[in-house]
Every structure is written in structure tokens, then in C-alpha cells.
Amino acid sequence: MKVLLITESFPPIIQGGGELSASLLAEELAKNKVETHVLTSHFPGLQEQEEINGVIIHRNLKTGLNPKKIIDNIKRIMFLQKSIKEQAKKLDKEYNFDVIHFLNTTSITKLNIKTKKIATINNYTNFCPKSNLYHKKIKWKPGEKNFKKYLKMMLTSDYVGKQKLKPYLKYNPIFLIWLYLNYLKRRKQIKYVDTFIVLNNIIKLNNSKKIYNLANIPTKVEEYPIKLEKNKVKILYSGYLETIKGVDLLIRSISKIENIQLIVLGSGSEENNLKDLVKRLNIESKVIFTGKVDYKYIPFFYKNSDIVVLPTRWPEPFSRNILEATFFGKPIVASKTGGNPEGITNNGFLVNNTRELTEKLQTLTKDKKLREKMGKASKKLYKEKFDPKKLIKETIEFYKEELSKQNNKNHTKQHN
User: Fold this and answer.
1) Is the Cβ–Cβ distance between 165 and 68 less than 8 Å?
2) 395-409: per-residue pLDDT in tens?
3) Which of 174, 273, 383, 411 is 20 to 30 A from 73 in CA distance terms?
């Protein structure tokens, strides 16, 4: 079997957990004797084509260099899909792939070739003009078309995707019209895909299968220079420091809880505001901000944590933190939104508001036996649901099933 994976970014360029999952998927497919190619963007200093761990990488796509900048996001929209269309067609002609797998929604493109096309729905760019399905007052149904409602939503929003919306764009009619037209274009692209892989139950699509992202989590514990208080319960938050991530909600919750230490692992545009909040609440002795940390230190922070919290406001499709927390056997407290329910059963709590978040954290901080029980449940859940060997087997079987359906369909057409 020959498979082409299409992804905007691929290691060593890492924008988030998606690139790590893409790399692991490619390598595991190659190990299972699947001829695996990756079509991704070219960045300065990288070879246009090379083979790494049995995976043939083609860095021929054009995109913006920094997805955190609005101007680079505009470049992505202008150049990425055009280059995918050109390069995928060129590679398919040369290698004659059995499957083309779009690993993220930003890479979904109309390809006028007969090869089986599969897409992983890893975010909401094809279903929401703001790409995040998040708004405090206005509910946007996935895939909805309503320009008046869209304008109301944009004029009362602070974010597009994970990026803060600048005032010069928020009130710019040209930008607002362009963004909506681009959304309609993205929405239409869904019909160019034969089959879908989904990560949660929010997006309802025919002909889809739920398969979670693979995670290659480091296990070697490398000490990080940080002062942790031994006799206090450690609560860990790991991720971007943005309003939609809800870190301020977590800080307000732990301000009411005794005998704890909160570790805030990550960076973002809200970092200074969050530090100011900690000062105003007079809980500086309770909170440690690490800033951005190399991923190799992840085992250290999980090993030295007792509870993992995902306080997100937006319906994040599926957080890598769930994979990490279950892998390391930690109880989880998370917002009841997005893909969080996929990773929480008897291994933690789902909460709807700050009051519930505070209550559940108080329960866990006071009950060591409950933390240990939920931690064991997390490890069991990881083995049953998120183990990479299980997921790669499911993915390959899915490819084969879809190819078999296509072959049967083509055979039927030939005999009619």
C-alpha cells in the first residue's frame, strides 16, 4: 500500500501536538510496511526532499511562516491549497498512491484525481468562520451559513481560531467579508473528501470513523530547575496562555484552596495578565509560571504533579494533555466541552463552571486515595483507548476497508 500524508507542518517544524502525531503516524505506517510519503511545507534551512526513518518527505508546499501572525495566516489562505493541488497531483502521477490522507482540515483541497481521499477533522476551520466554534453569547452550529449572525459573532469576539483579533481587523468590513467567503470555500471543500477520521462527537459526518491522534510521549525524566514544595498537592496546567484556554478560571479556583501549588507550564499573549491576576489575588506563593519549556521535560512535570487540569473555554477537538495525563496515570479535571469527555470516565471529573472546578479540585486535594484510584484508571484508559499500537492498527485497517469499498464500487460500475 502507498500512502501520501498531507500536512501543513511536519517536524522539525512543530506548531503544536498535531505535528508530533503526524510524525509518529508516518513512522509507524512505514514500520508496518506501508510505503509512506509526506507532503508538507518548505521552511528555510530544510531539504526539499529527504527520507527519515523510512518516511519519504516532500517539502514543496507554500505557506505562512508563523501561524500566530495574522499576515502569515493570510499567506496560508492565499498559497497553501493552491500548492497542495499542484504538488499532490504531481506526486500522485509519479508514485500512484492508494490513499491520500489530509491530516488536518487546513490541508483539505479539491484534487481531481481518483485516489481514495481521507481527512482527519482535527479542528473546526470547515465548520465555523472563526475556526473555533467558541462564542460566549452566540451559538454557531457546525457548518451553519448565516451572514448576519456571523457579523454579530465577529463584532463581539476576541479570537479567530487561537489568535487574538486585532481591532483594525475586527472592524474592517473588507476583512470580515473576506473571512466569511473563505469560510464558505472551506465548508465546500468537505465534499471533496471520500471518508473522514474524527476525534470527538461534535462534528457529525457521514462515512466517518473515530480514531484518536497518536502520541509519542517521552518517558525519560530530565530534571528541570524549579522549586517544588514537597508537602503540597501539585496541580499542573500545560498549554498556551490564551483567554480561550481558561487558565484565569483555574487561577481563581486555586485561590480558594489550601495546601496546593499550581504549575503553569507554557507561554502566550495572556501571560502577563495572568501574573497580574495572581498578584491581585495575593497567591504568588501558590503559583509557578515556567514559561515555554522544551518537550523533553514533560515527564518531569507529570511525575511531579498530582492533578492535571484542562480548564478550556473553547471546545478543543482533542487535547494532547489528555494523552499525556492518562499515559502518566494522573487524575484529570477538565471542562465538559470539545473532546475532553473522550478522555475522562472514572479517572477524573468533567466540570461546567468555576464553582464545579473549585469543588472537584478541593475533593481531590483532600483525598490522596481518590487521586491514586483515578490515576490507576487513567493508565488503564490509556492502554485500552489511546495506545499507539492499537491506533496504528485501526488506521491501517481503516485504509484497507476504504480501499476495499472503493474497489468493490469500481467493480460494480464496470459490470453495469
Assistant:
1) no
2) 999 999 999 887 766
3) 273
